[in-house]
Amino acid sequence: QGREVPYDPEQLRKINEHPCYSDKACHAFGRCHVPVAPKCNIQCNYCIRDFDCVNESRPGVTSRVLSPEEALDLVRKVMKEHPYVKVVGIAGPGEPLANPETFEALRLIHTEFPRLIMCISTNGLMLPESIEELAKYDVGNVTVTLNAIDPAIGEKIYSWVEYGGKKYHGREAAELLLSQQMKGIEMAVAKKMLVKINTVYIPGINDEHIPEIAKKVGEMGAFTFNVIPIIPQYKFAGITPPTPKEKREMQDRCEPYIKQMRHCARCRADAIGKLGQDVQSCVYQQMKDEKK
Ligand code: SF4
Ligand code: SF4
Predict the structure, then answer these.
(1) What is the band of 291 on the pLDDT scale with cuts at 50, 70, 90?
(2) Residue 269: nearest ligand to its CA?
(3) Which ligand is nearest to the CA of 122?
(4) Potential cystine with 34: which of 71, 97, 154, 221 (Cβ 3.0-4.6 Å)?
(5) Residue owning the nearest CA to atom 6 of ligand 2
(6) How many domains does the chain have?
């Protein structure tokens, strides 16, 4: 299963206290997403963009957007009232690395709470150029959504990619995204970040390819692999999603290559609390009341 290199104590802490990296931690510890990143720099064919980035989240959910200062305030409050929260994550509502607010929020929060585990979720397009800054704020847990390692399949999944002020389409877009994702994953592993791979299971498009993705990222030293069934919408609205049984079978096929995450709750970009026991509605309501 994946790499055999032992993890150091700091990495073990970032595994054992992170509800998404350890299925034991998910009962004891929580995470606080700070929704500071509204923009996105690619177009996935299963995303209608009115809602949260569906690479992690349940579709049809629109999270609020906070400024980096509001995010810091939120974390202060959560730390006081929900001390079992050990992780601050940025997972949208768009692509974290396409929004400068992400880095400002990480800086503010890490400066005041240096022991909090810092986590981001990304499509990977800007991961290589972001690694240094992420490392500076001790971001130790990085999720990359990787739906194909073959651009011929990738071009069926992405309509366009915007990079360096230019929009790319078709094969060129898929090649660019893939090369950035591969470089970024390699750099993150080299920086001792714990890399989680999300792969959207899209029947008829990438299903036969998913074990190859798992094999590749296992060899690259990624920590865990999260198979996410597609929720059919936008250009993929006609696709029948995999059943829970098919999802489990896919995870079993990938298991020999890399540890499988089987307890993902597909959280909103503003989720707070333990997985499945979210408290964000009360926290945000209290913040509103306090402002009155
Ligand atoms: Fe939508 Fe996320 Fe894909 Fe951007 S990366 S298009 S927000 S699913
Ligand atoms: Fe963890 Fe899955 Fe929720 Fe992301 S969506 S925070 S991986 S449980």
Answers:
(1) confident
(2) 2
(3) 1
(4) 71
(5) 267
(6) 1
On whether residue 71 sits in a domain, the answer given is: yes
Contact 188, 135 (CB under 8 A): no
Query: What are the pLDDT digits (tens) for 227-284?
Result: 999 999 899 999 999 999 999 999 999 999 999 999 888 888 899 989 888 888 888 8
Compute the distance from residue 21 Cα to the ligand 2 centre, in Å: 9
Taking the centre of ligand 1 as the mean of its atom positions, its distance from the CA of residue 180, in whole angstroms, is 16
Domain with 194 in it:
9-291
Residue owning the nearest CA to atom 2 of ligand 1: 53
Alpha helices in the chain, H assignment, sequence order: 9-16, 25-28, 68-81, 100-112, 127-136, 151-157, 170-190, 210-220, 244-254, 280-291
Asked if the structure places residue 3 within a domain, the reply is no
**Which stretch of 89-103, 117-131, 240-254, 258-272 has the lowest confidence by average pLDDT?**
258-272
Q: In CATH, what number is assigned to the domain containing residue 204? A: 3.20.20.70
pLDDT at 8 over 70: yes
Distance 198 CA to ligand 2 centre (A): 10
Residue 70 lies in a domain: yes
CA of 231 to the centre of ligand 1 (A): 13
Identify whether 158 is part of a domain: yes
At position 245, the amino acid (one-letter code) is K
